[in-house]
Amino acid sequence: MQSTIIFVALDNELILEGAAHRNIKTMANTYTQCYFHLVFAVKNREALIRKTWKNELEKYITGIVQNHKHKMLAISSMPDHIHIFTGYNVNHLIPDLVEEIKTSSNAWIKNQRFSSLKFEWQHGYGAFTHSRSQIDQVVKYIEGQESHHHKKTFREEYLDILVKNGIEFKDEYLFDFFDGPMSWE
Asked: Which of 51, 100, 104, 131 sits a CA distance of 20 to 30 A from 41?
């Protein structure tokens, strides 16, 4: 004899017929809350981010982030690197998001003719998690990049971030940093 299972929906709860007395329900919703601070660097010193198009670049990247259902919390670019802080959509992988940002923004910068030389991002990136209680602190840190880099190079900043996050690293796998502090020309 063949048995048949019948599913019945009652008040938005799925119950197996004959199992109502066991109160079998569907799985509850899944809730997540993740915040990621992304950092990556410009490849060529000759093709740095310029102040004249910095804001447009940040808006363009914000669009990429939001189109993938992440929430942009802060973004700030310097001539040689960028910081992006997001409320992260866990259904989209970090490597895929970073690749999309880099690939799309490279093409966009080329199409806009912002640089007479080939603009590229370096390979690799930093991705650091933060708790909800750190949001304001991280946003202020990212928004203060210009004044921050009057005192500290990107190399010093990035190494500090790695150390504070307890990340072991080898110098040969870090970004190719440019000498001296970066400021807008």
From this structure: 131
